[in-house]
Specification:
- Strands 3-15-14-4-11 form a five-stranded parallel β-sheet. Strands 5, 6, 10 and 16 form a four-stranded antiparallel β-sheet that branches. The protein has a three-stranded antiparallel β-sheet with strand order 7-8-9, with no helix packed on it.
- It has 246 residues and is mainly beta.
- It has a domain of 167 residues: Rhodanese-like domain (Oxidized Rhodanese, domain 1, 3-Layer(aba) Sandwich).
- The protein has four helices and 16 strands.
- Strand 7 and strand 8 form a beta hairpin.
Length: 246
Amino acid sequence: MKKIILPVCLVIIISFCGISFANDVQPIPITAEEAFDAVQTQTDPISGESTRVALVDVRTRAEYFWVGTACQVDEIITAREETIVPDFGKVVLSQNGRFLIYEIEGRNKRLQVRKVSEMVISPIAISIPYFLWNEETAGLIANGNFGQDVEALAEDYNVLIFFCRSGGRSEACLEDFDTTPFDAIYEIDQPDGESGYGGFEGTSYSNVYNGYRGFPERLTEIQDHPSVSWKDAGLPMKTSVNPLSQ
């Protein structure tokens, strides 16, 4: 029997044209670190139960490629040619970019970035853009395949975790697909319900940071709503990845 974590109000409208679904669903907000742990351990981020979890990047393909996307660290190669394989591929950039924090067999480790020769990184997010970038108009257009592409994930996953730039599209996109095949829907955003402070980059806080969004240990705790974004958490990321190859 399925365990339904996300409250769902399903309205079934039957007419001579067939059956259509109207979703009244709000994604459950979680932090980027909670999302990473859930995907890498394949457990529900709230219940902790074993399940099939997918991390879905709904930003444009241009954002995925140029800004970067969520990743795991497969190996750290040190300057001494030692190979380190961190637990669950989790490595956090810390102390103003000077140290890498990770675990080996559950034990906390720290390594100076200057002692790293190479990091082998691979994407963990599935790219399904909610909007597409139109080169001619320099604007966004709806992705007509979005709904069917997300619904197709039900064949392999029970739980979906969405993220966009800061938390807007990851909530709005739920209107465009049938959520009922999934046990739970999450998004990377403020757990207190104040949206727009999560996603991949978080907010610019009205250009407090000169327009920049998201970087490790940014002082967002001085704001009313600290960022819970992927980049602010210092989690692994990579640019120049072809989203169509994932």
